[in-house]
């Protein structure tokens, strides 16, 4: 208790006298009617209650089914006291709610599945429901038709992973490819008859997952509110010898600020300066979860189509992000200046999930409770706050709130039926995302193919979101006419539809190859949109070599500054890399040394060594030895970089390549990964002061890949800086000096004038601001730092992810970039505290 009191006393000392948000007032629950009065909602919208305890308890997720029933996942064993006692008690349940009297409020609950341990997700099927508990994943069935499950089948005994609620797999969202995806997981699932398939996919997010009308997945992390995939799943991981650094887990915004309606003293790290402002309000996200993509039309204002809502239960608020496309990238910004879409002065308001209803309205799941933080991560400070103010009391509550525009006119009760396939096809054009998603699902899962002509009409003549839906249905049902995809590729006005048509045409078993080649040649002969360029590269593994290599050469030469395009090309080039090098070296557009073409050759060189085929390595080394230009130097640099990080035994060649006689830094590094007859056992030590161990070399290599993706546009691949963009990193004291200072620059950015190696830099010689890279995780930032602190003649110990993570926490609340003077002063103070 003494330690807790000292912590609280320290926290109080950080704020000016007179602030009393650290008081002893007991926090009592409010009735739904009282809570309603605490909401601060954006102008033009209404909010009303549609369900509350005792109809539901401790809800963490809700979804409407095709009958318009609201299914609720109730995690009733979560933190029922300060110690989280009996958390493994099987008292969770999945229920569905119905509005029997039609008054707009749910009045009947049916418990579909009971005796669950910390349930966390559901997905619908015609004959049952997939339900995720804390660890296992089950398929529940109602075999006697009474509306209650009576049979369950184990799908995956290890679905949840670690077991801690906020770090276990969750989500169960149905992707456009028929696979079910999850947050906090690297696995996806698919049903094939009675068999369940499980395979690896890219790791995504922490709690909650959604998708847009292009099928791109959205998710987040408690500290970083909005991330998304820029491509369909598993397209960038197809080449086993290349690891993409873009396209997956793209951060849409570096803005972490939140604007609560009340002080938030009961925050886990509330004692850390910069977590709360002088009014005791949370400054930035700490429990971001459950992004929801608003895809309905005609209900909310048009500018809110494809906007994304994000829950922040610790701050008692819901943020609305306006999302825009910038080429193939997505960007988000707060819809309101200095305030939120929804915030409450009731600290028990805990928005944890959002869903869309049959009427196009959005529904917010309010877990309504005092304790939001799981016990495994609760600090002593938060424990004290919770006990002192009674936030551990009054559990098993919960509410569902409905938000609509003002003067909203609700539709009559909606219901979709598998007995009406034509009606389901028509619903693909519905303005409401609930109708579109369930219609797609029901058509696919029930294998309803009898209305194929109607599906083709939708694919050719409807709104883009309906066209994409119809194409998804036909592909999953295996009834897609390849000539239809070629027609869309040639004639459709929407670039996203054309890109999807290209993807489907290129992998269709019955496509006319000559007609496809004509279509591709036509595309390459004109202006290529960002969306179509990306898909051309992603699909190039399905093209004949001449077309594939032409597409890669042309697109990368013209648009290759975009790292996503380079990643797409290399992910699709498996087993063709050496032939691709031969082709590119001879192309006129590839004779000029540009950063992005240099990087591409560098990456190709690394892939050749990683493939470990002696004939390919020999051929490439001979090629490099015969020509001395920027192309071969880039290839050699890539091979040397890969050699440094390789954990494989040296690759055996039949003879020593003549190139390795040069004795340069690159050839010395490369020779360590190779073996040949009569190679001396002892090799000459590298002349640099390299100090990295095996793990450090792995970090160096990973950091180099990330650097080439995120940093070369301003600092150059050689670290010498790019005029009008950024100063040099090579030899910079900002790089080789204090690692904390460098980490803080990457986390928060740097603005204003800067002196590097005695040279003063300011606009217009450099950009006014170096942006924050806070959307990168701690490991990525540590890897980049390790790389630049050991490249260009630098030498330093590897930077740990813990170092970056601690600095991220300690600098919470920093929402503007540093100035040079401010950062120097700040790091000096940090060093004094060590």
Give Rg in angstroms.
28 Å
Span between N and C termini? 25 Å
Structural class: alpha+beta
Q: Poorly predicted ranges (pLDDT <50, ≥5 residues)?
A: 1-20, 683-688
Helix fraction? Answer: 25-40%
Q: Compute the number of strand runs.
A: 33
State the major sheet: 6 strands, antiparallel
* Mean pLDDT rating: 91
| Proportion of strand residues | 15-25%
Helix tally? 25
> What is the general shape?
globular
Structure description:
The protein is α+β, with helices and mostly antiparallel strands and 834 residues long. It contains 25 helices and 33 strands. Helix 15 crosses helix 17 and helix 17 crosses helix 18 (665-671). The radius of gyration is 28 Å and the shape is globular.
Topology of helices and strands:
Blueprint (H helix, E strand, L loop, with lengths): L1 H12 L18 H5 L2 E3 L3 E8 L6 E6 L5 E5 L17 E7 L9 E9 L4 E5 L2 E5 L4 E5 L9 E6 L13 E5 L5 E4 L1 E8 L2 E10 L5 E2 L5 E5 L2 E5 L21 E2 L37 E6 L12 E6 L4 E10 L2 E6 L7 E3 L6 E6 L5 E5 L13 H9 L10 E7 L15 H7 L5 H13 L6 H10 L2 H14 L4 H10 L3 H12 L6 H13 L4 H9 L6 H15 L3 H9 L5 H10 L8 H17 L2 H13 L3 H16 L5 E2 L12 H7 L2 E2 L18 H17 L1 H4 L17 H4 L2 H10 L1 E2 L2 E3 L2 E3 L7 E2 L7 H11 L12 H10 L7 E2 H14 L1
Parallel strand pairs: 27-28, 29-33
Antiparallel strand pairs: 1-23, 2-26, 3-4, 4-5, 5-6, 7-8, 8-9, 9-10, 11-12, 13-14, 15-16, 16-17, 17-18, 19-20, 20-21, 21-22, 21-23, 24-25, 25-26, 29-32, 30-31
Helix pairs in contact: 4-5, 5-7, 6-7, 7-9, 8-9, 9-11, 10-12, 11-13, 15-17, 16-17, 17-18, 17-19, 19-23, 22-24, 23-24
